[in-house]
Known about the structure:
The chain is 34% helix and 24% strand. It is of the alpha+beta class. A 7-stranded mixed sheet has the order 5-6-4-3-2-1-7, sandwiched between helices. A hairpin with a 5-residue loop joins strand 1 (14-18) and strand 2 (24-32). The two termini are 18 Å apart. 32% of the residues are buried.
Amino acid sequence: MYYFYHILSWPQLLYVAEDYDGKIVGYVLAKMEEEASEVHGHITSLAVARTHRKLGLASRLMDAAHNAMQEVFGAHYSSLHVRVGNKGALHLYKETLGYQVNDREEKYYADGEDAYDMRRPFSESAKAKKNAGTSPSSNGGAEADPKAGEQEATENDKQKVAAAVGTAGAGAGAGKKAAAAAGEKKKHGRRR
Length: 192
């Protein structure tokens, strides 16, 4: 029910990546923090299938969620929790996406592992663009373009992945698939 609450409350913050056959190979699920003193979004879950990593999908999914947080809700920053021992995710969040460690939460996860509370502030220029009615973007105006960011992928990878990133709000089928993917992730006990 936790994931369904997110999907129903913030459908603008759910994005999926599909392969050419329509199979979901990645998703990001986010929410807005309603009780906070400063408007901000929170990344609840990010996952990309092992077979589709290193193609830029996680970055593009996160960019789409970040843009929606700013454009739709006027968020000032995004937050997330990540396992202290998850080196791959830490590299993605710090080096690629510009997150910074805000705090360390002891025994955050059920198995007792600590988590970093990370934050990524959104630029003032992005907020100014939102207020002026233009589209803020951390990557020069990309609006979840399915072909954006594929330069680093090989030709073989391009054929393998359609990388169609779209919001669940664009179709009920996408929301159902993402909910199923989110449930599958929860069932296996992986959480970022």
